[in-house]
Every structure is written in C-alpha cells, then in structure tokens.
Description:
- By secondary structure, this protein is an all-alpha fold.
- The chain has helices at about 20-35, 40-60, 65-85, 95-115, 120-130, 135-165, 170, 175-205, 220-240.
- Helix 2 (about 40-60) packs parallel to helix 4 and helix 3 (about 65-85) packs antiparallel against helix 4 (about 95-115).
Amino acid sequence: MSRVVWRREAPATSPLAARNPAVKLAVLFALSVGVLFWLDPVRPTFAWALLLVGTVAGARVPTRPLVAAQVALAGFALGTLLVNIVARPGDPHAVGLAISLAARTMVIGTASVAFIASTDAVSLVSSLHQNARLPARLAYPLLAGYRMLEELPREWELLAAAHAVRDVRSRTRPGVTAVARRTFALLVITIRKGERLAHSLELRGLDRQPRTVWRRVRVSAADWALAAGVTAAYAAVAIIAAPH
C-alpha cells in the first residue's frame, strides 16, 4: 500500500494548520472558481508563483513532497496544454488559451496541496458539521469512513504477514496471485467492517435529536483575515497582471 507523501505539520509550526478548515475549504473553492475566468496566461502564472510561496510559508510543505506534487500536476497540465493546442488548429489564440488552462491547473492543484497538507480530515468534518451545518447523518459516517481508510495500510501489512506464514515465497517476492488474494481479503474485511459500522451508526439515531460536541470549532478573526488576504491577493493579481 502506498504511503502518504507528507504529514501535516502541527498547528504551532504551520500557520495554515491553525486556521478553520471550513473557511480554508471555502477559500479554496472560491479561488478555484475565480481563476477559471482568467483566459490569459499571465494572471494564472503569477497566481501560481504566489501560491508556491504561500504553500511553503503557510503550510510548511517540505521541499521534496512539494516538488513531487508539482511534477505530478505539471504532467496533467502538459496534457491539457497539448490537447487544447491540437484541438484548435489554425487558431492564433490557441497557444495562449492552452497555456492559460495549464497555468490554472497548476494554481488549483497547488492550492489543493496547501489545503491538504495543512488540514486534518477529522478537524475538517467537525468544522463542516459545526460551521457549515453539515448534517450529523453525513458528518459522522464520513469520520468513521476516514478512520477505516487510515487502517487499510495496517490491515494490508497484517494480511501480508499472514500469507507469508503460509507461503514463504510470498514473503520475498509476492506474485500476482498472492497480491490478488490479499486484495480480495482486504476487500472482504473492509465490507464486513463497513456493514458493522453502518449498523452501529444507525443504532445511534443520528439527526433524531440535538447532538452535543466535545470541542467547539469557532471561526476566529484570523480566519476572516485569511479569507480577506486571499481575496485581496486575487484582486491585486487580476488588476496588476491584467492584459492590456
């Protein structure tokens, strides 16, 4: 099973990690929609450069994972660039529009990297439940499903160890058959856990009565400052780097 590329920094060392997850998600969505209106290549490229600085300074993403993410995004952006150039033969604006699409891909992707690297999934769902009024019937199953996903690598390792006891060859060089057996076993285990989890959540009667929360997630002045800062940066790029 593949491992995560980076781990989220603690709030004390990552300024973005201390911000409200629902606010960050709203900012990410607004920014992603906003850059779609930029059809020139200059503004999204400028915004991408600013986001790279913000990702390093705000989310504290290490250099190697950030470069790896940028390479993956660049491959997708290059495909978008080539497809749009080929699909518009003879159009004098084809290259500019293609570069714009590729740059917008990098902007949205880099902003998503900053969000993922600075946001814990449990905190995100808790914030959406309390601040965005996400129903408990959706919020708690999402939390439970996330916990199940976290356990998948450990379950895979346990299955690999169990199969290695039965078959020594699978311990050194597992073949296609061994991997297929582990995958099927992992699928069965996950389905059974999901079924038990669904029954447990149904018995709790989610949304049938008001629920209390152990830790209140609040929107602070710093969260509003983050939203205002990103909005101001977007407006500045839109005005300063606008084509003349």
